Write a sequence for this structure.
């Protein structure tokens, strides 16, 4: 038992953090759809999970999970989790993997409990599940209907395409990889992004509580404010280990992986929603504006919390797994 | 990161599990807050000690096995999962002993630790006073210098099981000119020399006591660390208390598993079932988090104020789990061990009442939230 990240894993996260700090400031997240994409490609983010024979690094989710936390910390726009985490699994064995690893194939994904495809208009390839079967669809064959919503830097689209009988045709390829592992992996990546976003929201709220003064003192000196923020710190602190353990379970293909992923997503979603709600309260009216960057993170938390199965869905899965089975498999 | 246990860790777990299967009493021992129950629990501690299982993480020379923190956590998981008795020696073992290891003299270690490991001497902690609860630094009990030692005066309160225990430890103001955190000294004292007035708790049993000191004479070798340094030394105790050793995850994972078994029957209200699943998950989160903490401690890092987050988390989880159990059981849940209709010998009710103390003792959760806000997040005092 060794619950700690390796130096390499920490170093990768630090690199991603540096790159994002330099190339994805909040003003980029406001105006650009895929800021820092090429920089992230340069440091190999899109090849992390691609096998070495396809020019990737052949690493696991555990190697990537902290890096994904960093992408959440800056509310990074673009189909990053879909391209870097879901696509390598869905396109297993496909010659496109080389392009994917290089960061020159953007992928939008709609599988499992997803209703819409995120950032589908930016994608070079769409993976869409229909009647339980995943298809790779080229943009030319896909009909996109924008579904505008709260998160303007993670746009959603309904995607449709024509299938000539059951056969494949130009631009529509039936994928053979099972979908479930891809869903699990991308759900963990999104859970990590939620943890990262929650950490940012906490830091930002603390920063505001230190600078904003009322009644002649810093608002952070009021105990009501302190305790709100302390509760966020506790929620984030105890959500993160579930996300890391889920990454481990997915990498190892443990029998508990389904349960662990549901646990990670539910806990990370709830912690991040609490962080968002508290951040807004601590900021007061300035937080309720578009002028302040805070809204970027609020919207991202709401949209990711609902993505790949919302909290209620994952919680009901957990309920079935924990209460429905004969005995909780906790340790060997 | 590797969440698998090593072969040595598995072997250790198997040994502990096997030992517990052979030794845990079939019927629960009488409450350790009663005289009879206290002695029954002391006998149980001796049984553990005979196989070096009472203090697995201590060095061999003091009765332990030199086990790693992870092994200690494994021991705890198995211990509570097996439904083994509460640890009557816990205040000494988990709260005083770490301080003796860090600040005690070789003679003090030799004198007190082996007897503590065997429960020949059971310890009570004496911090709180009538006017000093959360604000411990307001304490008024004092120590007067005499030839070769000290005389203790004043009053302590809420000292758990002090009416049955053998020794006490706590802070006394040794410098009359001092205020607040300065001028305090850490003393150990035999309870036989102190007037002890038992106090009945919510469940009617004498779970804690008031202590009156009217000039008890204490030799110098019962001072722990340097005189006047008591606050710093005591804080070292409370940080291990809030950190790892006070409430290991094993307690909560065991409770969560029992709760799940309770909720598995057909017809469980889906809302309650949902909360049960969530509680189970929170216990798992605390468990994983603690393995992370153990690893950081083993690497020589300090956990410091971050341990306040754990205290808030486990104490509120414990209340939630027991509240849920009582909701699932309805009226039967409120029956005690004496009632024929009680579920599981009234353990859920006992556990419920005890869980309610969790957010109060070891620094209330409001105090912990202050600490998190000020020392972890850096908000102004
Ligand atoms: C079952 C049990 C066993 C115990 N065992 C022992 C023992 O063995 N030895 C021992 O010495 N003590 C023991 N205690 C006492 C325990 O340490 C104290 O109860 C605790 O420190 C709180 O002090 P108090 O009870 O005086 O409450 P108070 O300090 O009076 O607090 C009352 C309320 O006010 C709140 N409050 C106080 N100050 C603040 C603040 N600054 N900010 C926000 N809120 C605040 C508290 O959080 C609490 O809600 C035990 C208590 C219990 C319940």
């Amino acid at each position: 038992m060794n619950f700690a990240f390796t130096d390499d894993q920490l170093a990768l996260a630090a690199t991603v953090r540096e790159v994002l700090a330099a190339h994805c400031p909040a003003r980029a997240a406001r105006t650009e759809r895929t800021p820092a994409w090429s920089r992230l490609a340069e440091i190999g983010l899109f090849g992390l999970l691609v096998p070495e024979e396809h020019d990737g690094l052949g690493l696991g989710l555990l190697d990537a999970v902290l890096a994904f936390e960093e992408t959440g910390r800056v509310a990074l726009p673009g189909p990053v989790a879909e391209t870097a985490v879901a696509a390598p699994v869905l396109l297993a064995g496909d010659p496109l993997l080389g392009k994917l690893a290089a960061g020159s194939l953007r992928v939008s994904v709609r599988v499992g409990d997803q209703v819409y495809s995120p950032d589908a208009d930016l994608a070079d390839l769409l993976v869409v599940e229909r009647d339980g079967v995943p298809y790779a669809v080229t943009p030319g064959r896909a009909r996109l209907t924008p579904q505008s919503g709260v998160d303007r830097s993670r746009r959603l689209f309904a995607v449709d395409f024509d299938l000539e009988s059951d056969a494949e045709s130009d631009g529509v390829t039936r994928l053979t990889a099972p979908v479930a592992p891809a869903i699990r992996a991308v759900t963990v990546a999104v859970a990590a992004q939620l943890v990262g976003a929650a950490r940012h929201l906490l830091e930002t709220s603390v920063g505001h509580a230190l600078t904003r003064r009322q009644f002649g003192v810093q608002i952070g000196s009021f105990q009501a404010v302190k305790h709100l923020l302390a509760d966020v710190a506790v929620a984030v602190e105890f959500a993160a280990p579930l996300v890391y353990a889920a990454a481990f379970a997915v990498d190892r293909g443990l029998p508990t992986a389904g349960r662990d992923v549901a646990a990670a997503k539910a806990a990370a979603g709830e912690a991040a929603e609490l962080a968002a709600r508290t951040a807004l309260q601590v900021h007061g009216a300035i937080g309720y504006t578009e002028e302040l960057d805070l809204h970027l993170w609020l919207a991202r938390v709401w949209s990711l919390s609902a993505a790949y199965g919302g909290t209620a869905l994952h919680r009901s899965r957990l309920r079935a797994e924990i209460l429905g089975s004969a005995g909780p498999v906790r340790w060997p | 990161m590797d969440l698998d246990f090593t072969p040595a860790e598995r072997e250790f777990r198997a040994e502990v599990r096997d030992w517990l299967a052979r030794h845990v009493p079939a019927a629960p021992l009488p409450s350790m807050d009663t005289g009879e129950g206290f002695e029954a629990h002391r006998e149980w501690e001796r049984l553990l000690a005979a196989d070096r299982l009472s203090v697995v993480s201590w060095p061999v020379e003091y009765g332990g096995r030199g086990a790693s923190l992870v092994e200690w956590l494994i021991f705890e998981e198995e211990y509570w999962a097996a439904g083994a008795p509460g640890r009557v020696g816990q205040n000494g073992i988990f709260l005083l002993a770490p301080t003796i290891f860090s600040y005690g003299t070789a003679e003090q270690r030799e004198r007190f630790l082996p007897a503590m490991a065997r429960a020949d001497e059971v310890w009570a902690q004496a911090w709180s006073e009538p006017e000093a609860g959360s604000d411990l630094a307001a304490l008024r009990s004092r120590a007067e210098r005499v030839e070769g030692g000290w005389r203790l005066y004043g009053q302590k309160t809420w000292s758990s099981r002090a009416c049955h225990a053998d020794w006490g430890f706590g802070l006394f103001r040794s410098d009359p000119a001092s205020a607040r955190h300065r001028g305090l000294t850490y003393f150990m004292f035999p309870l036989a020399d102190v007037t002890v007035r038992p106090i009945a708790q919510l469940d009617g049993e004498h779970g804690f006591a008031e202590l009156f000191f009217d000039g008890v004479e204490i030799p110098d070798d019962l001072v722990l660390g340097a005189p006047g340094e008591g606050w710093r030394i005591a804080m070292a105790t409370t940080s291990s208390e809030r950190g790892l050793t006070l409430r290991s995850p094993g307690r909560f994972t065991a409770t969560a598993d029992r709760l799940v078994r309770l909720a598995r029957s057909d017809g469980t209200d889906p809302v309650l079932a949902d909360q049960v699943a969530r509680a189970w998950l929170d216990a798992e989160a605390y468990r994983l988090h603690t393995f992370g903490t153990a690893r950081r401690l083993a690497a020589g890092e300090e956990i410091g104020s971050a341990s306040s987050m754990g205290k808030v988390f486990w104490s509120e989880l414990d209340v939630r789990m027991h509240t849920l159990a009582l909701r699932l059981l309805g009226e039967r849940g409120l029956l005690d061990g004496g009632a024929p209709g009680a579920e599981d010998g009234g353990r859920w009710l006992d556990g419920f009442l005890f869980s309610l103390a969790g957010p109060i003792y070891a620094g209330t959760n409001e105090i912990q939230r202050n600490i998190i806000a000020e020392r972890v997040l850096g908000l102004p005092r």
In short: The mean pLDDT of chain B is 94. Residues 123-231 of chain B form a domain with the Butyryl-CoA Dehydrogenase, subunit A; domain 2 fold (CATH 2.40.110.10). Chain B touches chain A through 54 residues (CB under 8 Å).
